[in-house]
């Protein structure tokens, strides 16, 4: 029996979820390991050999910016942001589902607006030719973390919204806001 369109969409979103999840985890793990190693090396170079790397702190700072925005996508995926859940706990399952759909819609609009304006800002910085003070790399590479992160968080929100919309039953426990 062929899969229905919603089933195919959910399977595609599930595959995207797994791929993005792996890529995000690998990026964050490697970036944290590299930043930690670089900072340790720079401390040794500074205090033992009195020859620090001038660009180490700057690179670590911009890596941490990227880690925050990519990590934001992971937090959206795992529903790890701080949330006040008093209202959902007072609602019946059907109301809980409607609330979750409405909140996901609002969040998606926020990420779309953030993506748009951060993308414009990144393009302005790129057009200005601004460079990082120590590394002399293009500054827009640091700013690119904002549109990339908001795009990933938007994708995660679309995945959440698709899961919510695919659930047709309103029985007990049918929608867990923390899934």
Description:
There is one protein chain. With 179 residues, the chain is mostly helical. It has one domain (5-166). Helices cover 74% and strands 0% of the residues. The chain is built from six helices and no strands. Helix 1 runs antiparallel to helix 2 (56-78), helix 2 (56-78) runs parallel beside helix 6 and helix 4 (93-128) packs antiparallel against helix 6 (145-166). It is elongated. Mean pLDDT is 89; it is low at 169-179.
Give a topology summary.
Blueprint: H1 5-47, H2 56-78, H3 86-90, H4 93-128, H5 140-143, H6 145-166
Amino- and carboxy-terminal Cα gap: 29 Å
Number of domains: 1
Main sheet makeup: none
Helix tally equals 6
Principal-axis shape: elongated
N-to-C series of helices and strands = HHHHHH
Total beta-strand segments: 0
Helix content: over 70%
Radius of gyration: 21 Å
Q: Residue ranges: pLDDT <50 for 5 or more in a row? A: 169-179
SS class: mainly alpha
Average pLDDT, all residues: 89
Strand content: under 5%
């Amino acid at each position: 029996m062929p899969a229905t369109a919603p089933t195919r969409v959910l399977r595609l979103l599930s595959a995207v979820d797994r791929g993005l999840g792996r890529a995000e985890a690998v990026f964050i793990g490697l970036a944290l390991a590299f930043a930690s190693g670089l900072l340790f090396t720079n401390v040794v170079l500074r205090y033992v050999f009195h020859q620090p790397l001038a660009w180490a702190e700057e690179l670590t700072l911009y890596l941490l910016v990227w880690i925050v925005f990519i990590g934001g996508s992971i937090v959206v995926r795992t529903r790890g942001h701080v949330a006040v859940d008093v209202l959902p706990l007072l609602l019946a399952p059907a109301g809980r589902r409607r609330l979750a759909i409405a909140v996901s819609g609002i969040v998606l609009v926020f990420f779309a607006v953030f993506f748009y304006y951060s993308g414009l800002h990144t393009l302005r910085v790129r057009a200005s030719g601004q460079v990082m003070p120590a590394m002399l790399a293009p500054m827009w590479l640091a700013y690119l973390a904002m549109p990339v992160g908001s795009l990933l968080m938007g994708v995660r929100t679309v995945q959440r919204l698709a899961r919510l919309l695919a659930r047709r039953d309103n029985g007990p426990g049918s929608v867990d806001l923390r899934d």
